Amino acid sequence: MNNEWKLEIAEYGTLRVCQTLLDSLSTFCQLLPSQPESGGVLVGKHLNSGGAMLIDDFTPPQASDRQGRCSYYRSEAHNNKVLDKWKESNGHSTFVGLWHTHPEAKPDFSTLDRKDWINALKNSRYEGTRLFFIIVGQTHIRCWVGNQTKTTSKIELLGEYKIGSK
Ligand SMILES: [Zn+2]
């Protein structure tokens, strides 16, 4: 509960990721050949003190998603889930990024992932200029930050977390 993964971001501040969220995401880890890619949306809170961002919630795969071994399609159903969470939290919990799994130890983003992330940065509605992208691999979780300015979308690896370490 009090354990967190903390990542420092220049000109932004501290990103805090809840241990409970990491534990929940780890349960979708693709260790067996039969396990498909999973994914969803990251939900967090913009902070005024004690850091810049706390990611503490997510949406799990929805029935309308399409899950293949090496492919994943995120359906519109996630948006409604996020809206519910936003209402329940009186506007504190909001869309802050995307997550999905990969059947590889230390995950790297694919060309398609990058396209999806840039599309999210350019075309989705969010507070500020940054979104966070998490890929859950078989042994490590990696986190990237995307920063959208008027002219460019920049994606940068922030760090990696070894699954099971506390
Ligand atoms: Zn991917």
Gross morphology: globular
| Largest sheet strand order | 1-2-4-3-7-8-9-10
Question: How does the helix and strand content classify structurally?
Answer: alpha+beta
| Major beta sheet summary | 8 strands, mixed
CATH superfamily: Cytidine Deaminase, domain 2
Q: Total helix count? A: 3
Distance between the termini: 11 Å
Protein described:
By secondary structure, the chain is of the alpha+beta class. The chain has one domain: Cytidine Deaminase, domain 2, CATH 3.40.140.10. It contains three helices and ten strands. The strands form two sheets. The protein has an eight-stranded mixed β-sheet with strand order 1-2-4-3-7-8-9-10. It has a two-stranded antiparallel sheet with strand order 5-6. It is globular. The termini are close together. The mean pLDDT is 95. The site of zinc ion (ZN) has 5 residues, from loops.
